[in-house]
């Protein structure tokens, strides 16, 4: 069940040119949180901007009752969020969304993140490691400075590879190029991914060719976050006359089976 509550800001620190790490004390909801869910955050102290902004749960420390978010400053909302200080309270709704479906987990799993889309994957990876799965992680970014989760991943028993567009670390090029190499070299049974829409769209044919089950976390623009406003709808395949129907990323997603998602041309 999602709720509207205030969480104390324990940290809100810049980690590179564009990204921040925000730690919130939220013991009231900690036991409900699943990997892949998000919080709907009221970024400013007043009514500007009016709408909340969806941010994924990056990490969850159940013992301390703390939730970590990673966010990139894009516009008005995230700019204001970056000015919020330790000791202030942040108004959030959550946890929202369905999260990753972990009911039929396979043994050999590939996790792929692009840009700030790597944010929700950390909680998932930590859960997969706890369940003793064999995990390989591919993280892509514009450059070395923007590669996220490096320290956390180095401390975990996962195989971790990086791609940067400018070649400053790891594979030179998009993470989808690294994925193509990886799928040729190794067999995977299941893939989880989050990143910009063009990345997820490019992954779909690569993965379906190999017949691997994949779940995608979509980052649609979102309004209410509770299924009322329909601003975050996306197309999924169904057997009706049109061949598709609209689903809400906020309440039906943000995680969908890759085989169902229809990306617009
Ligand atoms: C389920 C979900 C989880 C998300 N998790 C994270 C996260 O963990 N960390 C993070 O940094 N961001 C995340 N996002 C994206 C984040 O919500 C947007 O970047 C944010 O709302 C932008 O708000 P703003 O006021 O700063 O920018 P705005 O002024 O609203 O927009 C500025 C720019 O950001 C782009 N933008 C706005 N919303 C989105 C969006 N949903 N996806 C992609 N681009 C967008 C716009 O096209 C515009 O160019 C998530 C989005 C969704 C739907």
Automatic annotation (TrEMBL):
Q: Which GO terms describe its molecular function?
A: 2 iron, 2 sulfur cluster binding; electron transfer activity; flavin adenine dinucleotide binding; metal ion binding; oxidoreductase activity
One Pfam family of this protein, by short name?
DHODB_Fe-S_bind
GO biological process: one example: 'de novo' UMP biosynthetic process
* PROSITE patterns in alphabetical order: FAD_FR
Where does the FAD-binding FR-type domain start and stop, copy by copy?
2-102
Q: Which CDD domains match?
A: DHOD_e_trans (cd06218)
Which keywords, in A-to-Z order, does the entry hold?
2Fe-2S, Electron transport, FAD, Flavoprotein, Iron, Iron-sulfur, Metal-binding, Pyrimidine biosynthesis, Transport
Keyword Cytoplasm assigned: no
**Similarity section:** Belongs to the PyrK family.
Q: How does it assemble?
A: Heterotetramer of 2 PyrK and 2 PyrD type B subunits.
Q: What is this protein called?
A: Dihydroorotate dehydrogenase B (NAD(+)), electron transfer subunit
